[in-house]
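Mods, move this if it's the wrong board.
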Amino acid sequence: MKKRKHTPSTRKVRRDLVGGKRGNGNKRTRPIRRPDPRKIRVGRADPSLTAVAGLVMFGSFLRDLGVDRMLRQLFGDLKSRLLGTYPMEAQLRLLIDAFVVGEHRVFGVEGLAADPLFVMLAGGVLPSIDALYRDLDRFDDEALRALTGLMVRHGLVPVHSLRRRQVVHLDIDTTVTPVFGAEMEGAVPGPNPHYRGRPSYHPILARVAETDTCVNAALRTGDTGFGNDDARFVGATIDCVRDAIGGKPLLYVRIDAAGDCSAIMRATHDRGALFLVKARMTADLSGAVAMHQRWKATDWDADGRPSREVGKSPSAAVNGARHPSCRSASSPCELGNASAASSCTCGRAWTGLCRRI
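Not the wrong board. Structure tokens:
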């Protein structure tokens, strides 16, 4: 019986196998220079020439925003400007372009080496992945903070247009980023059941829903949970967003059940923001939902029947009085009887739904 041989993906092969050329930085006497994409004329579509034609418009967009200039100012001194062949700002722009076209790993640059447009925009030659890894290793804590600050500044630019809105929503959540290889710093197995045993990172992200822009982020090890230690991150993010939108709009902070802890709620409350946190469906909370009598309908289905109701619940019912005051919401299916409410797992209980604390 013959086993079927799968064609290797171009994302997992060296550039020699896909027609790409190896870097010749050891033979160059001058640093490479990326061309100005705004001077590239776009002609008729021809798939045989390149698969990343959109990088021309994307590069022009970043040039107009001044991203290339800011990368040079912030990170150009991480390596020698005279002796290095690949300037740091060029390396970072190379990785940004690779990410935009779908390559989330440094090794993916090998497959892109066969695309003539990608190579031209990179300065005419692509460095080896070893050179990229060495340059990434130059980032210390100060450089990482500067990179995060650059991302935050650009993410907050469209947020300034929300000053006249009545409500602004700030979503904070974590995500799991698995990696290949067990020797990467901070990449350790975490508790996420979808990536059990996989080395991974567990970053935390903050996003303004109305503009769909990321306004803060923090890279964390894979075994790091979300809780009291992240209250400083939540507070700093709220301060940045509040400075951008001013004092008029109501700011709602939305977090899943991981945010059901006193330190995060207190950090949100102290800054005058409202929190919308998914509460853990404990036995006390299930019982309070089942026994509660006064509910107010806030949403109805096509037949005019309430599909969502809210009611004020005593703080002791929500996870042992984590905050002095709260509100909870529940769907009608949880109100049928006490046993139905206690067994419901749809997780429709929330604190800080629409009331200033």
